[in-house]
Structures are given as structure tokens and as C-alpha cells.
Amino acid sequence: MRVIAGEFRSRRLLSLPGLDTRPTPDRLRETLFNILAPMMEGAVFVDAYAGTGSVGIEAISRGAKLAVFIEKDREAVEVIKANLASLDIKSKGRIIRGAAALHLASVEADIVFLDPPYPKDTEYQTALDVLSAKPPALTIVQHSVRYAIPDEYEALIRTRTVKQGDNALSFFKAK
Description:
By secondary structure, the chain is an alpha/beta fold. It has helices spanning 26-40, 54-61, 74-86, 100-103, 121-133; strands at 44-48, 66-71, 93-97, 111-114, 138-144, 152-153, 156-164, 167-174.
């Protein structure tokens, strides 16, 4: 796994062994950040269900002033710490260890990226309900193309969907 573009382009990132963590594919990350490019400079970016932290690190590489990583798995948190240290960007990353739904409401962010484990359908609903109470400027949800995400969650409305292989990105803005 590597950083796609920006300041840390082509730098390698550590990943987790096994199949429990499903990293966002390089091509999908590239598509995501090509869409987000006009909004990245100086943004606060949340990478919820962060895994290895590759999405949040990509955000920093492309100009985000801060990436907040929310991850409950202890081993994944250690990988995020190691990835931030290897790029010498610990000061641009804040790691919150715990369940995303419990911490999303306490984080002030411009952009929130949600990528819950695909089998955990209730995580999508719970996280989007929390964000609906105080919506960020943009929420992006990565999900399986086979998972039907509703177009609205209280104060959030879907404005765009991008499909790539088995993955989809749904973009939500405040109503």
C-alpha cells in the first residue's frame, strides 16, 4: 500500500496482516481525492474506521491541516502511529481509539470519511445518525455496490455516488 499523490506520493505504508482490515484500494483513493482536491487545502479530515490510516494520510499528503483517525482495533492504532511516524507527520494526525459512533459527535471536521466493515450494516446507520445531529460540510461513505444506502439520513442528503468495481462512494451534504 502506498500514498497516491501529494507531498508523500509513492511512499509506502504499513498494513495489517490478515483479512480483517479491508484497505481502500489505491484506484478508489485516487478517485476520491481527485473529487476532493478543491476542498483539501487546510481541511480537517476524519478517517473513521481508519484501519491502517491510508485515507487520512492521503488527505494530509494532499493538503489537509489535520487528519483525525478513529479506530477501535489496538493493532490497527499501532499501525497508524507507525505510518504517521514514518512520514514524520505525527503533529498532523490525531488518533482516537474507540468506536466511531461514540466519537464522531465530538470531532469538529470539514470532511468525514466513513468506511465501516462491510458486514456491519448497522454501523452505517449509527454513524450517519450521529453525523446528522451536527453535519460536517461533507460526509463520504465507502460501501459495497450491493449495499443500498438510503439517499437521506435526517439532516444529510446524498448528492453523488461513484462506483468502482465492488466499491461505491456515496457523498452526503447537509440539507
